[in-house]
Amino acid sequence: MNATPPTADDLRPFPLRESLGFLLVRTALRLRLLGNTLLQEAGVDITVDQWGILNLLWEADGQTPVELARRADKDKPNVTRLLKILEDKGLVSREPDPADRRSHRIRLTEAGTSLKDQLLDLGVTCLERACQGLSRQEIATLKQLLNRVYANVS
Question: Which superkingdom is the protein from (predicted)?
Answer without folding.
Answer: Bacteria
